[in-house]
Amino acid sequence: MSLDVSRWTIDDVQEALRSRRASAQEICAATFARIATENPKNNSFLTLTEERAMARAAEIDRKVTAGEPLPPLAGVPLAVKDVILTEGIRNTCASRILGNFIAPYSATAVERIEAAGAIIVGKVNCDEFAMGSSNENSAFGPVRNPHDPERVPGGSSGGSAAAVAAGMAVAALGSDTGGSIRQPASFCGVVGVLPTYGRVSRYGLVAYASSLDHIGPFGRSVKDAATVLAVIAGRDPLDSTSAAVPVPDYLAALDDPVRGFKIGVPREYFAEGLGSDVRARVESGLAVLRELGCEIVDISLPHTEYAIACYYIIATAEASSNLARYDGVRYGYRTPESASLSEMYRKTRDQGFGTEVKRRIMLGTYVLSAGYYEAYYLKAQKVRTLVARDFSRAFERVDAIATPVAPSPAFRIGEKTADPLEMYLSDIYTITGNLAGIPGISVPCGSVPAPADGGSSDGRKLPVGLQLLARHFDEARLLRLAHQFEKARGEV
């Protein structure tokens, strides 16, 4: 009988290796067999690394045979978002402009997971340069939600979330600039963690908006996500923004009770625009927290209404600057049709970048231009300070904050592409965490029926996530609370 690892956790992998029930090579081969079956359905993987992965699996098996202690991710099949560099592997950022780019070095997060024994099975699809909320902006086609192929998996880390949800990887790395880990985790029914800004090195992450970008893990359980986070977290001298803050043992306190925790519920997140089905699932999640002994506290985050405008000014301004390097001169795509240097620049960028990336470059260039910098960019930075201050004041009263992740469950592919503003509103509950730089997590809190809009997916169940947010560098409390919530719901 062939090995089925599609629902395995990190603990399952480790137990199988220790007991000799399965070898790392068998687990790896079973994972690629699963990818061969499932990836054509959802388009998660852009590049597979089977030869490299099997070689690393053989190394793990030699350790097992020799009786050596196994590192925390030994033999774990793991997918990496295609904006996180992996040495010697194609790294496209889901863009034509980097369609054949081979990464010359690995991101620190990648080096750390490989040092911990993880086996990278491939690079996964995403919105181009991580710019999007639905994974429809990829130059290589959209990713489809494993729960309903007519619907999006969320974005921009849709490939990472879908790979875990579809059983093609035990865990995955993604990036989150305005919700790009938490929203796909919610749409695909997996766990996704946004670490505190500076907790995980950004070295080797292809920049979208440098002051907002985070690398974080996806897993089938909070414990799996905590295990990966513990590996990738910590100070990195190669990233000047990484923080010299000790990393606690995230697993040690997972099973400690959470009775007495005060959970803030911001009224601004339950206003007009939140779908009634999603609201019901989130409120049922709050009821679970009450049953665990948590006190639910009504709070206000008054500057939330300005967050979307603030975020899309700062993010696009930074994107405009970061993407200036893609000019056809040093690496990446270069147009064959040019009569002058300026024409080469113009045609290379026009042909290489997709519509959404061009839109954000133009918006960012505008808000940074003479006469508009102070009116837009400088004002947005001041509003960002107010948003962060809202959270600081809230955390004087509460231990964590609970909110929806998105206003709706996964929407249909093509449903929002004609209206960029409607698409941007998909991130309304997640961007504040990035603006404030605080940690957050999306943990499944149930499912809702797919809206009856005449499609073949009517009647399917779509996952919904609960978002939990905590103080800077308080991931341990956040993971503990999410784990206890998960156990109380019977998910583990």
Features:
492 residues; alpha/beta; Amidase signature (AS) enzymes; eleven-stranded mixed β-sheet; 15 helices; 13% strand
The CATH class is identified as Alpha Beta
Indicate the CATH architecture.
Alpha-Beta Complex
- Number of strand elements: 11
Percent range for helical residues?
Answer: 25-40%
What radius of gyration results from the CA coordinates?
Answer: 21 Å
Task: Explain what this protein looks like in three dimensions.
With 492 residues, the protein is of the alpha/beta class. The protein has a single domain, classed as Alpha-Beta Complex (Amidase signature (AS) enzymes), CATH 3.90.1300. It has an 11-stranded mixed sheet with strand order 1-3-2-4-6-5-10-11-9-7-8, sandwiched between helices. The mean pLDDT is 96. Helix 5 runs parallel beside helix 6 and helix 9 crosses helix 11. The longest helix has 22 residues. It contains 15 helices and 11 strands. Helix 8 links the parallel strand 7 and strand 8.
What's the arrangement of secondary structure elements?
Blueprint: H1 10-18, H2 24-42, E1 45-48, H3 50-66, E2 77-81, H4 108-115, E3 119-124, H5 158-165, E4 171-176, H6 182-188, E5 191-194, E6 214-219, H7 222-232, E7 262-266, H8 276-291, E8 295-299, H9 307-322, H10 341-352, H11 355-368, H12 373-394, E9 400-404, H13 420-424, H14 431-436, E10 440-449, E11 461-469, H15 475-488
Parallel strand pairs: 2-3, 2-4, 7-8, 7-9
Antiparallel strand pairs: 1-3, 4-6, 5-6, 5-10, 9-11, 10-11
